[in-house]
Please model this.
Amino acid sequence: MGRLYVVLHCFENEVRALIRETLEEKEGADWAEKLPPKIRAFAEGRQKSAQDETWLEGEKSDLLGFTDFGHLSAIIIDKWIHFEDIMPTQHWLKQRLDELEKTRHFIAHNRVLLPSEFQRVYMYIADWNRVVGL
Model:
């Protein structure tokens, strides 16, 4: 399970990097100000809590790091004009990220996955890497 957690962690952060780099290139340095308002407000609230109320150290300046995994597909779909040349369809994107999000939640709550479910995760990530090229 630990290995799968690491794989999903790396994948999730690669998707965040793709979003960050694409939006910075296409929308400029203030790209985070142009995120969907509900997602931006959610992330800003989490970021403020992390900065004000926690003893934990670590990265706290990256707003995208405070979004939920499920927000990532919503951001890409909202900014589809910048991603349509990278991904085949919005349906393709949503299907894969929704399935990976379910698995991520399962692992985050210390549930055990079957070997076939491991294979599904690896298949989705390999498919993503083949198409998107992370």
Observations:
- The CA atoms of residues 55 and 89 lie 42 Å apart.
- The chain has six helices and no strands.
- The mean pLDDT is 90.
